[in-house]
Specification:
The protein has helices at 3-23, 27-38, 44-54, 60-94, 114-128, 142-145, 168-171, 193-201, 242-257, 298-304, 320-328, 341-344, and strands at residues 132-133, 139-141, 164-165, 185-187, 206-215, 227-237, 262-270, 273-283, 286-296, 312-319. It has twelve helices and ten strands. A hairpin with a 2-residue loop joins strand 8 (273-283) and strand 9. The protein starts with a helix and ends with a helix. Bound molecules: phenylalanine (PHE).
């Protein structure tokens, strides 16, 4: 037999055997393949060995060397297949390997944003004073943001440049809406909207707070931002006076700063309260402005169908960023919105 023919036979045998060992998925299949290729009596390697005798004398050393090499290769392949099946079997019994000595990965725990922490705390404090927290939409109509709050169409607060009206493009060139049916939508500029929404749905008495975002087209600087948070309070009942307003605000501020905080009212004007005041508070020897407040204007009661002869009430709206900044000595409101973990980690 020619050498080339013999070597080609060995190559074919090698291919077939490798493929059969690799394909064997069970111990029985692997044993059948072993007998077919490496069986001592009639395996294909055994038959190839007979062919070796027929190779020309001069070619015998080369042919013999390749034959021995092939035998080695097939035995190695068989062993590899055997251990593959064995480890698959242990994995099935034990499940994936778990090494309890490998160091773990410590998950990085975050925490609530300082403003969210403040909001939660304010809810809690006011809750203890009997105020329940309610939510209102951030996209508002002009009725709730202005009209029902006694802010008529010609009032400068409704200037399109001082508010984020939606769909201004639709209105471009059109005259400003003349009736409540033509109400536009805007991002609410104050949480006082929620006073209206609650009173429209609930007969008096009411005792609520609402905390959330408000939007005004201010340039951002250390104390202004086009979006910020307010806490609105509303209490309506028989015989409510400004003394109640001041007591509630003082209790509230004292609990928040855990100190004896003083409250000062300065005369002011809001269309939806009469009289109206600016609220300042003094903590650690410094006065800071907290926001606005006053006694609910009878026109507001009329807009929501409350009897202004029978009920009185107070309302206030305070800046959440302000109290949070004062508490933590934050000097720039923009820090709250940058999401810089070096800032946020400190709270
Ligand atoms: N809504 C007012 C503001 O945003 C604050 C306010 C609320 C004043 C309630 C009086 C009563 O400035």
């Amino acid at each position: 037999m020619a050498l080339a023919e013999f070597l080609a036979e060995l190559d074919q045998l090698n291919c077939d055997a490798q493929a059969a060992f690799q394909a064997a998925g069970t111990a029985a299949a692997l044993e059948a393949a072993r007998i077919e290729f490496l069986g001592l009596k009639s395996g294909r390697l055994k038959s190839a060995q007979k062919g070796l005798g027929a190779v020309d004398r001069a070619d015998k050393p080369v042919a013999g060397q390749r034959f021995n090499q092939l035998k080695q290769q097939l035995e190695t392949a068989l062993e590899a297949a055997q251990s593959r099946l064995a480890s698959a079997a242990t994995a099935r019994v034990d499940g994936p390997r778990f090494d309890p000595t490998v160091p773990g990965i410590r998950p990085r725990l975050g925490h609530l944003h300082p403003l969210t922490q403040t909001i939660e705390e304010l809810k809690d404090l006011m809750g203890r004073l009997g105020f329940s927290a309610v939510d209102g939409p951030e996209v508002e109509d002009e009725w709730h943001n202005f009209e029902a709050l006694n802010i008529p169409l010609e009032h400068p607060a409704r200037n399109p440049l001082d508010n984020f009206y939606l769909a201004t493009a639709e209105r471009l060139g059109a005259t400003r809406p003349q009736s409540t049916e033509e109400r536009g939508l805007l991002l609410r500029s104050q949480t006082s909207t929620v006073q209206i929404r609650v009173m429209e749905k609930t007969p008096p008495p009411v005792r609520i707070i609402s905390l959330g975002r408000v939007y005004r087209p201010d340039d951002a600087d250390a104390t202004h931002y086009p979006m910020f948070h307010q806490i609105e309070g509303l209490l309506v009942d028989r015989g409510i006076t400004m003394a109640d307003l001041k007591s509630v605000l003082r209790l509230f501020a004292s609990s928040f700063f855990q100190d004896d905080v003083h409250i000062r009212f300065r005369p002011s004007f809001f269309p939806f309260t009469e009289p109206s005041v600016e609220v300042d508070m003094s903590w650690q020897g410094r006065w800071i402005e907290m926001g606005g407040a006053g006694m609910v204007d009878p026109n507001v009661f009329r807009a929501v169908g409350y009897d202004a002869e029978e009920f009185t009430g107070f309302a206030f709206g305070l800046g959440i960023e302000r109290v949070c900044m004062r508490r933590h000595n934050v000097t720039d409101i923009r820090e709250f919105y940058k999401n810089d973990v070096r800032f946020l980690q400190q709270f």
